[in-house]
Specification:
The complex is a heterodimer of chains A (367) and B (333). Chain A is an alpha+beta fold. Chain A is 23% helix and 36% strand. Chain A has helices at 42-50, 92-103, 107-120, 136-148, 166-183, 194-200, 218-223, 228-233; strands at residues 4-13, 16-26, 31-35, 57-62, 65-66, 77-80, 154-158, 186-191, 203-208, 211-216, 240-250, 253-258, 263-266, 274-279, 284-293, 299-305, 309-316, 319-326, 337-341, 347-350, 355-356. In chain A, the strands form five sheets. A six-stranded mixed sheet of chain A has the order 6-7-8-3-9-10, with helices on both faces. In chain A, a hairpin with a 2-residue loop joins strand 1 (4-13) and strand 2. In chain A, helix 2 packs across helix 3 (107-120) and helix 2 packs parallel to helix 4. Chain A is elongated, with a radius of gyration of 25 Å. Chain B folds into three domains: 2-32; 59-112, no CATH class; 121-332, MetI-like (MetI-like fold, Orthogonal Bundle). In chain B, 69% of the residues lie in helices and 0% in strands. Chain B has helices at residues 2-32, 59-66, 70-76, 89-96, 100-112, 115-121, 124-153, 159-170, 180-190, 197-205, 209-219, 224-232, 237-245, 250-265, 269-274, 282-289, 297-330. In chain B, helix 1 runs antiparallel to helix 17. The radius of gyration of chain B is 27 Å and the shape is elongated. Classes of the chains: A alpha+beta (367), B mainly alpha (333). Chain A binds chain B through residues 50-52, 72-74, 77-79, 81-83, 85, 87-89, 98-99, 102-103, 132, 136, 139, 146, 150, and chain B through 223, 225-226, 228-235, 239, 243-244, 247-248, 328, 331, 333. The structure holds adenosine-5'-triphosphate and magnesium ion.
């Protein structure tokens, strides 16, 4: 139905450029999550799509229509704001009826539609309440209802769950996913919570510093980050990065010499231009034979116990490393620490931070 | 426990004392309204006993102190020609052959109590209506202008917003007395608003420093998402103004109204300068009722008391609204 296409979209505030030529295709009828650290321009991008911010340069298309200069209400978008932006003195019913009232819909039809939408969202008993008499989750649903009632082609969400507590957040996440399936609408969802992104998204757009870093399915991005930023941003705790000095490649094997002199033996070839090795905590195992650290070269910094598993933090000469262990398994107290790395799950990055030596199953951006 | 309750008791005592202190002027005023002028040089904490009409009092003194209209008295007593104000009542009775009781009956009401009596019979209601019109229009129009300015300036997104705002505030430091003459000339000569209530309304809403201040700062706290949401829902700016912003202005309106209403209501200076007696608002009316050569304090204080009553009611109503909306907004979410 309605995909959203940005070509070379630029946003400037005066002399400050906050979005630097975004090229992005947001798939129709899918849920796309814009993910990135605070200040990277997610909200700005979303608000540009909504029409609340002008586009300084480039094109924005919704469906096949160029909408750069189209009024927000005529873009077929509905937005759910982070603070919900419910009209505080109007009842739930009136809040939801507002868009229809603005359209000049007849009263009887408004009544019908509001009740219908309220039913879907289980808001029926609350229709006569004021927003201030609702819980956070209920407010959130009213905001959704107000967005849904116009049958928009594109739903825009700006961190809609960030005001909710953890439990409710999970519930509303499922709710949104369900609605997306039911309505089959295009949804764009801004968040800086990667769990939200991983669980909700059909497609994730990772942004940083006003650039798109990578676009892809959640697992693709997790398994094949396009660059060091994405690799470090996705996954918690973050991927371990081991900068190295040199590489000696042999047939199907390589020895990587880390800064500080330690060596890692790998059963795979390492790209020549690689400068950093990345490996996630869950792909490091204690007792392997890839990397042996003498007793006097590491200190354990402590562990985070999550019940079923624990993250152990270890300080090495070239930096810290995080290791995932099942609960109950401790690091050796004495002697050298030997680690195994899952060779297939080791990532390499060149001097510019770009991922190397992986298949072309990913879209790459630039840092 | 002992410490906390002592502290609480102390707090309650201090607060009550403070409360009483603020209420004392009202009490004194109320007592004054029932204190005969002849006793008004003393401070009374309770309504003093009224002296009976003495046939030894001079008719001139009576007209000075109790607003007795000497001409009306002469007509009523069918006295022709000049009546010497130095004459005592008993002398008048004797001299003109009038029954002392007739004189007593005529004058008794004045002496008995004449405060509210004098006020009401001399055009209180007319002045009250004029005051209501002026105050009501000033507050409503002033608030509307303030809301409009506030919604235009809120957030100070442009440099000139701040400039406009500051220039409005500057208006506050002009002493009204200093500009009263040029104001008078402009209003009567160039606007043709001589003796018109409109002139007072105009003066009250001009500049609007306070309304701008109150509404701008409150509107700045209204999340901009509301406006954006209206825009996305297909509403125009006036929809936002009418349906969303205006209904949210209860709290700042209560603040604005409770501050300015007493000003407007009690504005003596401008009313005296710009209006004629047939159009006087309450303060000017009360001031004029004392008489030109006489001062009937009982009437004056009654007038003040009476003119305060309506504003007091309105004021209390707004206070309630103010407190309620302040509480509603206090809870986060
Ligand atoms: N009106 C403005 N003028 C100048 N710079 C702005 C303006 N609005 C936003 N910015 C800048 O644009 C950048 C992107 O802001 P944006 O709100 O899109 O970030 P975000 O990714 O949504 O962050 P968050 O996760 O904190 O909401 C920020 O660096 C911000 O400082
Ligand atoms: Mg944001």
């Amino acid at each position: 139905m309605s995909q959203v296409t940005l070509s070379n979209a630029v946003k400037r505030y005066g002399a400050v450029e906050v979005l630097h030529g975004i090229d992005l295709e947001i798939a129709a009828n899918k849920l796309t999550v814009l993910l990135g650290p605070s200040g990277c321009g997610k909200s700005t991008l979303l608000r540009m799509i909504a029409g609340l911010e002008d586009i300084s340069d480039g094109d924005l298309r919704i469906g096949d229509r160029l909408v750069n200069d189209v009024d927000p209400s005529r873009r077929g978008c509905a937005m759910v704001f982070q603070n919900y932006a419910l009209y505080p003195h109007q009842t739930v019913f009136k809040n939801m009826a507002f868009p229809l009232k603005m359209k000049g819909t007849p009263k009887s039809e408004i009544e019908l539609k509001v009740r219908e939408t309220a039913k879907v969202l289980e808001l029926e008993p609350l229709l006569d309440r004021l927003p201030r008499d609702l819980s956070g989750g209920q407010r959130q649903r009213v905001a959704m209802g107000r967005a849904m009632i116009r049958n928009p082609e594109v739903f825009l969400f700006d961190e809609p769950l960030s005001n909710l507590d953890a439990e409710l957040r999970v519930k509303m996440r499922l709710e949104i996913a369900r609605l997306q399936k039911e309505l089959g609408a295009t949804m764009i969802f801004v968040t800086h919570d990667q769990v939200e992104a991983m669980t909700l998204a059909d497609q994730v757009v990772i942004m940083n510093g006003g650039h798109v870093q990578q676009v892809g399915a959640p697992l693709d991005i997790y398994n094949h980050p396009a660059n060091r930023f994405v690799a470090g941003f996705i996954g918690s705790p973050s991927m371990n990065f081991l900068p190295f000095e040199s590489v000696r490649n042999a047939e199907n094997a390589a020895v990587v010499r880390l800064e500080g002199g330690l060596e890692i033996a790998l059963d795979r070839v390492v790209p020549d231009t690689a400068r950093t090795l990345g490996v996630r905590p869950e792909h490091v195992s204690v007792g392997g034979r890839n990397l042996t650290i003498p007793e006097d070269q590491f200190t354990t910094l402590g562990a985070e116990h999550l019940g079923d598993r624990a993250y152990h933090y270890v300080r090495l000469p070239f930096g810290d490393i995080t290791i995932l262990q099942a609960e109950g398994q401790a690091l050796p107290q004495t002697g050298a620490l030997s680690l195994g790395l899952n060779a297939d799950r080791v990532h390499f990055f060149d001097a510019d931070g770009l991922a190397l030596g992986q298949a072309s199953d990913q879209t790459t951006g630039t840092t | 426990m002992g410490k906390a309750s002592t502290k609480n008791t102390l707090l309650i005592v201090v607060l009550s004392a403070y409360c009483l202190l603020t209420l004392v002027p009202f009490y004194i005023l109320a007592v004054r309204a029932f204190t005969p002028t002849i006793q008004s040089t003393e401070l009374h904490l309770w309504i003093p006993e009224r002296r009976d009409l003495s046939m030894n009092s001079r008719i001139g003194d009576l007209s000075t102190i109790y607003n007795v209209d000497a001409r009306a008295f002469r007509n009523a007593m069918e006295i022709k020609g000049y009546l010497n104000p130095q004459l005592k009542l008993s002398q008048i009775a004797e001299q003109y052959g009038i029954e002392p009781d007739r004189i007593r009956d005529y004058l008794e009401p004045y002496v008995q109590y004449n405060g509210i009596y004098t006020i009401v019979n001399n055009g209180f209601v007319r002045s009250l209506i004029a005051t209501i019109v002026v105050t009501g229009a000033s507050v409503l129009v002033g608030a509307l202008l303030g809301i409009m300015t506030g919604s235009a300036l809120a957030g100070f997104r442009r440099r000139w917003h701040m400039f406009v705002y500051n220039s409005y505030l500057l208006n506050m430091i002009i002493p009204p007395m200093m500009v009263i003459l040029p104001q008078y000339i402009i209003i009567t000569r160039y606007l043709g608003l001589e003796n018109s209530l409109m002139s007072l309304i105009l003066l009250h809403i001009k500049g609007g420093a306070l309304s701008t201040m109150v509404f701008t700062s409150y509107i700045a706290t209204v999340p901009r998402e509301l406006k954006e949401s209206v825009a996305m829902d297909g509403g125009k700016h006036y929809h936002y103004f009418l349906y969303i912003l205006l209904p949210l202005m209860g709290t700042p309106f209560a603040v604005f109204a409770s501050i300015t209403m007493p000003w407007f209501w009690n504005d003596l200076l401008h009313a005296l300068v710009l209006l004629r007696p047939d159009n006087y608002t309450l303060p000017a009316f009360v001031a004029s009722i004392g008489g030109t050569f006489t001062t009937n304090f009982e009437a004056i204080f009654s007038g003040v008391l009476l003119s305060l009553a309506p504003i007091l009611v309105v004021y209390l109503v707004f206070q309630k609204l103010f407190i309620r909306s302040a509480m509603a907004g206090a809870v986060k979410g």
